[in-house]
Amino acid sequence: MINIDTYRHKKVLVLGLAKSGVSAASLLHKLGAFVVVNDMKPLHENPEAQGLLEEGITVICGHHPIELLDEGFQFIVKNPGIPYENPLIQGAIKRGITVLTEVELAYQISEAPLIAITGTNGKTTTTTLIYEMLKEDQKLPLIAGNIGTVASEVAQEATNDHTIVIELSSFQLMGTEKFRPRIAVLLNLYEAHLDYHHTVDAYWEAKAKITANQTEDDWFIYNADQANCLKVAQETNARTFPFSTRTKLESGAYIENDWIYFKDEAIIKIEEVVYQTFENVLAAVSAAKLHGVSNTAIKNVLSSFYGVKHRLQFVKELNGRMFYNDSKATNIVATQKALESFQQPVVLLAGGLDRGNHFYDLIPNLEYVKTIVTFGETAPKMEEMAKQAGIENIHRVDNVEKAVPKAYELSAEGDVILLSPACASWDQYKTFEVRGDIFIDAVHKLK
């Protein structure tokens, strides 16, 4: 870790705890800052705050007193989930106080170069693929961010022999100032998180911060099939490297004649790749090759990687049926991506929390869907959409647990049975992980 002086003898407010806040507060304390932690959860219910108190860090719990801004803070490190409308954050901005997220701290102290990945969909899977490729080639990767360990914690342990592979959300990127990865990856840009960012442009601007400080010594990998990503690429100072699932590229990663190519070099046959979301695969291959990973290591990973849990995760084959858990698909775009991954008959399990939207945008992606099993609040809307798509086999059940045996009953040998709800889980389940685990358990109970 680089023992920087940026925060020494400076007053820093850490707003909101959870794992990132605890790590940030401890790190800033080590760096010689005068740290105050403020969290909404009362102290007697807050073991994280109690632990920081034992380290000698000032802790204020139970509310966010606006009077804290009168204490002369020079920096605020906020939990990414806290919106910028928070009165403390608004007050800090008006006073010219720098507002950061802990990934900025991670970058500032890291001896290791960073490979950073963002996008609306596919971040976790792509991050994992890159990590596994580097690991297979003995490049000493560490994984951080939204996946794995908090970035500022990982950065404290990293040396210049390591490489940190980090998944980043728009919430995290908004709070960066000097953050500069050696390799940045922008997978895709769709409309999302408008409850936080309010406008599509603001959301895309947050995502673009992944490359804002890159120079000609760095690489920016982007999706050439998306105009929004191309626009970011046109504005970066980094060397650009495109990937495309549709078009052969003179200098990029692409698919041709059932092979994956890096520039003009054939890497692996499509039929040998287990995980079939090629947008993620091409991005991962690009990052790995630019980092010097061997073709052998890349092929070994792609021929054995079945996906991340709850993200188009292969669960089991039973009597010729392939079961996939894509419970992480909490929006329409994610389900579209999942459906694009298959070219055999699909029995789709879908439904969940009703946020007021309809699902007609799924219709162009239902070419291979022969049956839909619906559940949850949006079941009627899903069924109406399926009827308009011309799907005749539509069945409603009470929940995911009952959807699995029904889907199996309606399936045939060679079918894919896919849980990809296109909805959040909160109408019936606490998290999408719980929903996915119930699906997995139900699959394993089948005879």
UniProtKB/TrEMBL annotation:
**EC nos:** 6.3.2.9
Extract the Gene3D superfamilies matched here: Mur ligase, C-terminal domain, Mur-like, catalytic domain, NAD(P)-binding Rossmann-like Domain
Q: Which residues form the Mur ligase central domain?
A: 117-266
Q: In which pathway does it act?
A: Cell wall biogenesis; peptidoglycan biosynthesis
Task: Keyword check for Cytoplasm, yes or no.
Answer: yes
The Mur ligase C-terminal domain sits at: 310-423
Which residues hold ATP?
A: 119-125
Protein's cellular compartments: Cytoplasm
Its recorded reaction(s) are:
UDP-N-acetyl-alpha-D-muramoyl-L-alanine + D-glutamate + ATP = UDP-N-acetyl-alpha-D-muramoyl-L-alanyl-D-glutamate + ADP + phosphate + H(+)
Tell me the keywords, alphabetical order. ATP-binding, Cell cycle, Cell division, Cell shape, Cell wall biogenesis/degradation, Cytoplasm, Ligase, Nucleotide-binding, Peptidoglycan synthesis
Q: Which GO MF terms does the UniProt record name? A: ligase activity
Q: What does this protein do?
A: Cell wall formation. Catalyzes the addition of glutamate to the nucleotide precursor UDP-N-acetylmuramoyl-L-alanine (UMA).
Family per UniProt?
A: Belongs to the MurCDEF family.
Q: What is this protein called?
A: UDP-N-acetylmuramoylalanine--D-glutamate ligase
- Specify the species: Bacillus carboniphilus
Q: What is the lineage of its organism?
A: Bacteria, Bacillati, Bacillota, Bacilli, Bacillales
